[in-house]
Amino acid sequence: MILQGKTVVVTGAGGGIGRAICLRLADDGARVVVTDLKQENAEKVASDIRAQGGTAFAYKADVTDSAEVRDVAKQILSDLRQVDILVNNAGGSAALLGKLSEFKDAPEEVWSWVINLNLMGTMRFTQALLHHMLERRSGKIINIASIAAEVGIINRVDYSAAKGGVVAMTKALAMEVGPCGVTVNSISPGLISRSTDPAGTETSEGTYLKRSGSQNEVASLVSFLASSEADFITGVNYTIDGGRTLGPTGKGKA
Amino acid sequence: MRYANRIALVTGAGKGIGRATALRLGAGSAAVAVNDINQAAAEEVVSEICSSGGKAMAVPADMSKHNEIVSMIDAVKSKFGDIDILVNNAGGSCSALGKFVPFLEQNDQQLDWEIAVNLKSAIISIQEVIPAMIEKKYGRIVNLSSITGVVGMPRIPVYAATKGAIVSLTKSLAMMYGEYGITINAVAPGAVATRPGMEKLGEATFLKRACSADEIAGLICYLCSDEAAYITGQNHLIDGGRTLGTKPEDGEK
After folding, report:
1. What stretch of H or E contains A59?
2. Annotated active-site residue in B3, B138, B159, B177
3. How many CB atoms lie within 10 A of CB A77?
């Protein structure tokens, strides 16, 4: 129970990786604040956690809405009194709108929405809880970035830029808040299975491990970085991608 | 237990990060082979592991010598079996030989030693353990790099070069052996106080403290666990922010 006594807030936690992170951190003993764009999705995950004997609370939070983020952060602090760990997981590409395209054809309302969701959403939630962490001289912020930050993904220029922004923000903020006992790190997942079974993986030729990662594997890394084991780790971006961003295969050579 | 039925070898484990790693693996139920150039130090760590109910053996060897590495690994195989977890921790800068030698005065023998103990030792150890890992379709290899391998360090350029080489070795081998369920990662510490008096290193970090060897061991041991199966080919910085950018200079826009 490495997170016993800790309270963690996870954004975009109504499904997928966010849900897996919530379940894992609850297993580790944390009180989990499940936030999602859709209240009912957050409620569902919170009730799954309670069904397994964990402690969870559900809140609606649209990370693209400044006022809503401010209000929900205030509400969480008033209801739970402390937040030790923030996992900024909410995000996604223009695929969520069905509007992936080459950048030359991308309307500004689409790419600015993607940057707003991924980068500004992370900055908003961080700022809303940061003063609380600084006052307590304790806190861990974990941002879910993407391998897009380092290597880019085609037809996702906006998403790549936003995730690159998340990694850079992680580093700069780590310097600002490090002396006050707050650490800031990011995780860059590669190809992660969308399987509703969080342990599920699929065969994939695109990685050197020849498979996709599972949501649970990402959640495990979040758990490690959220724990006191990671107290000396700050301003870093840890990639979890089965080797997808490593160099070329060297095939076709003598 | 986290490493039950796993056989681990930690090099340079008589003190510091290697010792802390060996103790954690032992506490997690791995059978641990404890290497050090100093036999007494290795045996002391072994008795620490055994007295808390763990399983360990001392395998003293000079990691700058090819034949000693090979016979050490043979000794582990014959007593414990094939190695599942290899932590290449042995190493040091030229000062480790007892006296700091400035770069321009480092002779061939000193250069060879520094490259052997930091880089070749890891290469040879990996060559020795990989065939059995391929057969078992399981393996965890963690190589100790250093922040010097990423951002460089004055005074010890050769050490920094070997640590940079460790990072590219790690990536290339991760590509070669990933399909066999073998993960190969590096850990790059910065600002570790392994001896009293080293705490002032902490001033250079944004967390304003140095870390203990055990904190580095925590990251190494996470990467050695089954849970970290999807992480490979990465160099994991753990430095309290020491390598992050600096404050703007006066007048800088």
Report:
1. strand A55-60
2. B159
3. 17
Share of chain A above pLDDT 90, in %: 93
* Position A71, amino acid: D
User: Is residue B16 scored above 90 in pLDDT?
Assistant: yes
The rounded distance, in Å, linking the Cα atoms of A184 and A139 is: 9
User: What dihedral do alpha carbons A3, B237, A171, B229 form, nearest 10°?
Assistant: -60
A151 within domain boundaries: yes
Give the nearest chain A residue to B240 (CA atoms). Answer: A232
In a domain? residue A254 = no
Chain B residues with CB under 8 Å of A226 CB are none
- CA distance readout (Å), A129 to A8, A36, A139, A145: 11, 16, 10, 19
Domain total for chain A?
1
The catalytically annotated residue of A59, A159, A208, A238 is A159
CATH code of the domain in which A150 resides: 3.40.50.720
Do the chains contact at A175 and B206, CB–CB below 8 Å?
yes
pLDDT tens per residue, range A40-50: 999 999 999 99
Residue B251 to residue B253: CA distance in whole angstroms: 6
- Ordered by start, the domain boundaries in chain B are 7-238
A198 interface with B at CB cutoff 8 Å:
no
Q: Is residue A162 part of a domain?
A: yes
Q: Do residue A208 and residue B245 have CB atoms under 8 angstroms apart?
A: no
Domain boundaries B7-238, corresponding CATH code: 3.40.50.720
Mutation to test the A interface, candidates B171, B207, B243, B246, most A Cβ within 10 Å? B207
Banded pLDDT at B247 (limits 50, 70, 90): low
Residue A247 lies in a domain: no
| Active-site residue flag, A238 | no
Query: Complex ipTM, two decimals?
Result: 0.93
User: Which of A224, A232, A246 to probe the B interface (max B CBs under 10 A)?
Assistant: A232
Instruction: Name the residue range of residue A104's domain.
Output: 7-240
